[in-house]
Design a protein that fits this description.
The protein is α/β, with parallel strands linked by helices and 227 residues long. Helix content is 30%, strand content 22%. It folds into two domains: 1-112, 3-Layer(aba) Sandwich (Rossmann fold), CATH 3.40.50; 116-221, NAD(P)-binding Rossmann-like Domain (Rossmann fold, 3-Layer(aba) Sandwich), CATH 3.40.50.720. The N and C termini lie far apart (49 Å). The structure holds flavin mononucleotide.
Length: 227
């Protein structure tokens, strides 16, 4: 897979975030960035751009007035995914990202999704949030971290409410897959979704890994919380 990055970044934060996300990803895959498109300046937004199903694209924009900056819409709609794996990112100044992520995500339409894709849905963790089009769930094998949580406030909640899928269409929780009690992907053509709302065990596992990596790298400071 080829990793590509695209960003609009007037004051540099979105560029920094997108580069850092892509580089972290590259650390575990041994790939290199194939294409970097900075579409901050108008002369870089003249031509559309095409990707294909061998591409991974990290694309980022800042939030302006709760939305994707409207001067970018024409250009963003000229980008053709053709089945690329896209990670849309919005960066905000800590007021609120409002509808910006939904808007950017709308560009990652159902027709961008092709057989064999795996989607990790991380963003929605309360009722009312939605980052994936509900129709994407109809053809996918669906996995969740916690069934009870995802039905109430995960991405899976939306297609269930819209009656596009049933609760029983959820294949399994992650723990079931990890214990090898159910298969995740059955064929290379499966579209799979992992909806994650966040559980204590994930936080603890990550904290454990960060702690041990910091010890190995001899970085960080001991801190007495109760001091
Ligand atoms: C015109 C304008 C509108 C903005 N609107 C919002 C907003 O609605 N919510 C928010 O949290 N931040 C808002 N911000 C802050 C930016 O989203 C934030 O500073 C972002 O990190 C800028 O990204 P950049 O450094 O890549 O340009 C706004 C900034 C500008 C310039």
């Amino acid at each position: 897979m080829d990793v590509n990055i695209m960003y609009f970044s007037a004051t540099g934060t979105t560029k920094k975030i997108i580069k850092s996300l892509a580089n972290n990803f590259l650390e575990v895959t041994d790939n290199k960035i194939k294409k970097e498109v900075d579409f901050t300046l108008i002369h870089n937004r003249k031509e559309g751009i095409d990707f294909n199903k061998n591409d991974i694209l990290f694309i980022g924009v800042p939030v302006y007035a709760g939305r994707v900056p409207n001067i970018l819409l024409k250009y963003l709609n000229k980008i053709k995914g053709n089945g690329a794996f896209v990670i849309p990112v919005v960066v905000y100044g800590n007021r609120n990202y409002d509808d910006a992520l939904i808007e950017l995500n709308d560009i990652v339409k159902k027709d961008w999704i092709t057989n064999g894709m795996h989607i990790i849905a991380v963003g929605a963790d309360m009722a009312g949030k939605q980052e994936l089009e509900s129709d994407i769930f109809k053809d996918a094998r669906i996995f969740v971290d916690s069934k009870a949580q995802c039905i109430q406030r995960g991405e899976t909640r939306n297609p269930i409410i819209e009656e596009k899928i049933l609760e029983s269409d959820i294949q399994a929780e992650l723990s079931t897959i990890l214990l090898n009690n159910k298969k995740g992907r059955i064929s290379d053509k499966d579209i799979t979704i992992f909806d994650t709302t966040g559980m204590g065990v994930q936080d603890n596992t990550l904290a454990f890994m960060i702690y041990h990596k910091a010890l190995a790298l001899k970085i960080g400071k001991k801190f007495d919380f109760l001091g």
